[in-house]
Amino acid sequence: QVQLVESGGGLVQAGGSLRLSCAASGRTFSSYFMGWFRQAPGKEREFVAAISWRGGSTYYADSVKGRFTISRDNAKNTVYLQMNMLKPEDTAVYSCAARQEMKYQYWGQGTQVTVSS
Predict the structure, then answer these.
(1) Per-residue DSSP letter, 89
(2) What is the pLDDT of residues 36-95, one digit of tens each?
(3) What are phi and psi of 69, to 5 degrees?
(4) Please, what is the end-to-end C-alpha distance for the chain in angstroms?
């Protein structure tokens, strides 16, 4: 089992940047495929980005492609989400998730990102 704790959220003006971190417990972090998701008020949770076990492959939602970058440091058991050129529509609770199978099994509690116009 793995526990995930996000940090780095906050309030930023449109056009600004934030870097989210997700720290994982356990010794087998490198065996987990990691993802970031977000949920805005009144909307369903949506996929943002994902990264493979050793970071060799990354995947992005079209809405964030070119602005967000996902990365991981397996030595630190941490996955990051660098968010640049933020827009008000990026406002949401951002959560990281981990999976070893097809479905994400473990979720963090989330961190709030608010982008003001």
Answers:
(1) G
(2) 999 999 999 999 999 999 989 999 999 999 999 999 999 999 999 999 999 999 999 999
(3) -135, 125
(4) 40
